[in-house]
Here is the input.
Amino acid sequence: MRKYSEGSTTSERIRYKRSRSVLGSSSLALALTFRCSFSIMAYEGVLLGMGNPLLDISAVVDEEFLNKYDLNPNNAILAEEKHLSLYDELAAKYNVEYIAGGATQNTIRVAQWMLQIPGATSYMGCIGKDKFGEETKKNAAVAGVNAHYYEDETALTGTCAVCVVGGERSLVANLSAANCYKIDHLKRPENWQLVEKAKYIYIAGFFLTVSPDSIQLVAEHAAAKNKVFMMNLSAPFICEFFRDAQDKALHYVDFVFGTETEARTFARVHGWETGNVEEIAVKISALPKASKTHNRITVITQGCDPVVVAADGKVRLFPVILLPKEKLVDTNGTGDAFVGGFLSQLVQEKSIDDCVKAGCYVANVIIQRSGCTYPEKPDFR
Here is the structure.
């Protein structure tokens, strides 16, 4: 572009300045676009989840329904023979909602929502080749999660009855296809590349009932590559009846999540003579660990009581966002959501304070809605 001379007219000078302004704006826009693209590329596939994808069948029920099927509030179990008629009765008797669920899938969806970065999260699990499976795939795509499902030819997509009484939920999971995940699917190049690309890997304890060999393979990879490997205690029955598999996996875990009930069950099963959640959190964080790159951090939620975070023999307490009882709609997915919020900041290398703050924010959003659902965009600051 020709620069104006001292003898140029006023109109020529104005045209020159305008052209400089346009070029400057274009350069700035190009730089911002490049920076945005680089940021998206940097976070592509940064967080991977593996677990049991389920379709939640959620309804508000009464105490009589819980008693009939021997269910307890604020609990999660696997369906037994006596629970098989529960699903049809729930759909026939109550006003049900169908929501894509499963603990890890909930967490990954929430993390993706909080990040608002396309392709930042990935997920693997097993579904059936049926209408519920198609619904699950559609929900994952809408959520922006890069889901690589193993589709079983013989089993139906897993379901979870979410029975809500007074805002508290009782979960009864019929894993079905979710129980059919195979390590061969994980080893396929197009799926293993998700593991290699991820810097953070999260698996709920429920997956220990399905594919502990897959967990072991991913855990060993994370330790060898100095990645961050994370698990959730998930439910008291996992701590009680899958102790050996859980202990084997915990050897590789950098972040342990759980509730106060799960923590106390873990302590009892391991013969620790304490019910103090802070002491238990410290003990869990001090268990032997494969990788010395990251010190283990234990994060225990306690409902409306402070979040307990233990690391290096020390405990910190973080207050939660208190909610009036009348605003509580459904606790289903609240714990999953807390972890999703936490991870959304962790993958951005934010402080533990920011991670807990984000977890509490999302839990507060989810608890005021039915199921693990959220508005179009977060307003977390």
